[in-house]
Fold this sequence. Notes:
By secondary structure, chain A is of the alpha+beta class. Chain A has helices at 33-45, 81-87, 101-114, 126-136, 159-165, 175-187, 192-200, 210-222, and strands spanning 18-23, 51-54, 94-98, 119-125, 142-151. In chain A, strands 2-3-1-4 form a 4-stranded antiparallel beta sheet. In chain A, helix 6 (175-187) crosses helix 8. Chain A is globular and about 50 Å long. Chain A starts with 17 loop residues before the first strand and ends with a helix. The mean pLDDT of chain A is 96. Chain B has 2 domains: 2-86, Alpha-Beta Plaits, CATH 3.30.70.20; 115-282, no CATH class. In chain B, the strands form 6 sheets. A 5-stranded antiparallel beta sheet of chain B has the order 14-7-13-9-16. A two-stranded antiparallel sheet of chain B has the order 1-6. In chain B, strands 2-3 form a two-stranded antiparallel ribbon. Strand 4 (119-125) of chain A pairs antiparallel with strand 15 of chain B, so a sheet runs across the interface.
Amino acid sequence: MTNTLHRFGPAESFRDDYVVFAIASKGRNDEGALDKLRGFLELAVRFNPVNLGDAIHGGALRPSKEMNPAAHWKRDAAPDFEAVIRGLDAPTTVAAVFDNRVAAEDFVTALKDADLGLSINISTSIDGAEQCCFAAGIQRHSVGYSLGFEGDTSKLPDANVMLLSTMCGHGMVSHGLAKKMIDWVKEGRRTPEQAAGCLTRFCSCGVFNPSRAARVLRQAARGEPQ
Amino acid sequence: MKINPDKCVACGNCTYVCPMGAIYIDPAIHRAAINRNECVECYACFNGLSQEHLNPVFVRTVRKIFQMARVRFDPEPDVCPTAAFEPEELAWPRVVRRAFSDPRVPHESTGVHGRGTEEVKTNDVSGRVKAGEAGFTIEFGRPGVGVWFRDIQKMCHALARAGVAFEKKNPVTSLMTDVATGTIREDILGEKVLSAIVEIKVPAERAEEVIRLVREMEKEIDTVVALGVGARCDENGDENTIAPVLEKLGYKLERAKTNIGLGRITNAAAPRAPEKSEESVSAK
């Protein structure tokens, strides 16, 4: 699962995008991992994440299977972190997303102290992750570089759409919906935050960053460079 | 996936949310329809859209009145008002589409959700990529393009000819009938998936050769490729083996996934130091 690796954009565009996730390795440290993964999520909430999730049930903002029609006029767009923690019922990858480096640094430091024994990864700019490690007094163990998108790139949409759609590395946020949301913000039919919430609900593992998405949508609607 | 024509009101919301762009309003029946050849069974429509359970006749009537009056109702864009999507029982080989496209379905071969791979994310406990090695993830089809297994096989054949080792615990490898040649079972070559990852590992001195080979093969396949390279850092947390190779090849290294080494082997019966032969299967 390279679900957070290939986010589109230059390093500077990840200034408000820090994904920290925990994973147990099958057969090596997955026994008793459920409580540790839950501990990761509970710890993350203390540092004001913008999203939280697990790879089975999704993120902190989810679609509803029984939506009340009144939601068309008043939609609940508040992330439900407690639902994510309560819903975790099997070992899987869990993630917390932060929109500032200080929060990510503090969380990584707390993880080091918590000593959960799970593999912890930071997915962001290379410099951003190094700064988090430095702040926590940790040496990097391994690094997985993203070399970006190659091959028949003529099939890919414009940069603003890519910035949004690649934040769900499982590909659940379509180019079509990302483009539609940019257009709707441009037309004033939705606020950047409302449009970002709509995109966030499609992410199936909670790594989509609604805060960065709102910024991208706002700048795209104004025609500003990202 | 199916759309129930008795429920669908042709609101068009779903046409935007399909990652493959495979849903459209069929003018002949005035209902949403799915291009089954392009659908990868990712379930983004079923899982991602919120569902109301409104009466379809009522909704169609209201929509018709609004259309006649040229009034635009501005509903939420991520809602299916009549819960018209209905999952269907998938048979082999179509079920492969869902296994590789719906991240909520774990791969049977690895037990891992998503793309089914651990890469360097667990390298601190698996030791999969050691110092002096380069672990490649060659991902096809993402974002939003998709890939046919026949195209993946072209890349696998080329890699096998170069004598690289395929990761054993990988969903694509598990579908090979002949790992020595990179041949994938024939009955799935005509299946399209949202994304699939081939994992290989080579000595660091072969990294440049592999990247040049992948770039060359990219010209022969009908999709996009996202290349990732995993490497072990030294005792100071620095990585000065693979990064210089990548920069020499013109890559500007912007983003990475960084394993910060907090993992420990805690299972009572877990292997302490995995053997190389357990991790990968060599073509030669």
